[in-house]
Amino acid sequence: MECKKSNLHVLLVSFPAQGHINPLLRLAKCLASKGLLVTFSTTETIGHMMKEATNTKSTNIGQGELRFEFFSDGWEIDEPQRANLATWMHQLKTAGRESFIELINRQSETGKPVSCIINNPFVPWATDVAAELEIPCAVLWVQSCAVYSIYYNFQHQLASFPNPDQRDMVLDLPSLPSLEFDDIPDFLTLNPFDSLRKVILSQFKNLDKAFCVLVDSFEELERETIEVMSRISAPIKPVGPLFRSTKNASVRGDIWKATDDCLQWLDSQSPNSVVYVSFGSVVALSSEQLQELSAGLLKSGTPFLWVVKTPPPDMGSKPELPQGFKEEAEGKGMVVEWCPQEQVLAHSAVSCFITHCGWNSSMECLTSGVPVVAFPQWGDQNTNAKFLIDVYGVGIRAKKTPTGKNGAPVVTRDEVERCIFEVTKGANAEEIKKNAVKWKEAAEAAVADGGSSHRNIELFVDDIQRMAC
Ligand code: UDP
């Protein structure tokens, strides 16, 4: 007898960081819209900061339902954490694992046993829990397929990667363009944070136990890489861009409170005039970089909307904008703590996006048709910048010069001004905009009924249904 979709219960587990919560929550909404019961879970400490999620215990989406439940990471809610990533990851694994198992058992006790777990590979132990409890497990990869391929090749030693003394070496991997030193995630080359490199590579630890690897990308964007990696690693199903397939945008997982009045401010600006500036949820710019960026924004004479967030309690203090900047910026731009980025990128007043090129931000601007000034800082942002600029042709990469403290690379104010001009009014601006619109349309087609990502989601739901019967 065929199991009914309404009896299927999918449990998603997210690593507690904004760049992981967003794609997982979008997938959760997408699956709920297919008529499933979906529970989104992450740690209590971060869940406590996701005010909307904690206030909305349950929401109906189409025929389905989305619930939130949190598990402990062994820390008190207000206790500073993550000072030492390795210790914190260990604690998350021990305390989190136990509390996560209790969460799963609670679902059975209330008559809604979990039929499938979707794991964030940053939390690889959740796949072990699924195997122990004999629950089918899939994975959502929250970076690009190109980055998946680079990490996989490094982890399995399928290619030789340059070290800091081999900056001229070019990395050639199947299906990818030649990558220069600054295009490769620096966790693999400069290794600035060893414990983070370990966490990143541990993502592959349990991938073979998952019945499917979902990716927040789409076939038309990364076809060849998806094919190559599906052959050599695990079957990969691109289901993105997830933010476009989401039926109920009103449920958000923001850790910071978004300033909605920036949308009204955008309403008051001319079409195609505003530079949107954001560096995502983790990057903190040096004071020299803040100085140069703020001077460059003012020098450009272009209105701007700039997100300058206060880091989470344990991750540094609020960046100090240069003295006098706020006064000088009066009437020229708006600085906010956090904004509803998807809506900002969809606003007709926005002309371009100065971005750190996190994968979520990259997908969101690429598929909103917004030209980019790529301003990567570290990690996979370097690779995403390479693809946005040289492969997808939607912008320009800001050049760094070693003018910071101790020769640290900085994007100067003149370079900021030049990039804004080039991407909005320069000789290639028209071509860049044309490419951006092309990718927006391709993304819309991928998530529309019958599109590649839409089909993959349907097939994925069929798989869960088949396994649950
Ligand atoms: N974001 C947002 N409002 C902001 C800044 C960022 O909603 O003011 C969201 C953005 O839409 C994206 C996420 O935060 O979904 C950041 O993820 P990304 O992968 O771009 O960067 P990370 O924070 O992981 O470095």
Molecular structure report:
It contains 19 helices and 14 strands. The protein has an eight-stranded mixed beta sheet with strand order 3-4-2-1-5-6-7-8. The protein has a six-stranded parallel beta sheet with strand order 11-10-9-12-13-14, with helices on both faces. It is globular and about 60 Å long. The protein is of the alpha/beta class and about 475 residues long. α1 links the parallel β1 (about 10-15) and β2 (about 35-45). The protein has helices at about 20-30, 45-50, 50-55, 85-110, 125-130, 145-155, 185-190, 195-200, 220-230, 240-245, 260-265, 285-300, 325-330, 340-345, 360-365, 380-390, 415-425, 430-445, 450-469; strands at about 10-15, 35-45, 60, 65-70, 115-120, 135-140, 215, 235-240, 275-280, 305, 335, 350-355, 370-375, 395. The model has no long low-confidence stretch (mean pLDDT about 90). Helices cover about 45% and strands about 15% of the residues. The longest helix is centred in the N-terminal third of the chain and has 25 residues, at about 85-110. α6 (about 145-155) packs parallel to α9, α12 (about 285-300) packs across α17 (about 415-425) and α17 packs across α18 (about 430-445). The site of uridine-5'-diphosphate (UDP) has 18 residues, from α1, α14 and α15. Keywords: Glycosyltransferase, Transferase. One of its GO terms (molecular function) is quercetin 3-O-glucosyltransferase activity. This is Glycosyltransferase N-terminal domain-containing protein.
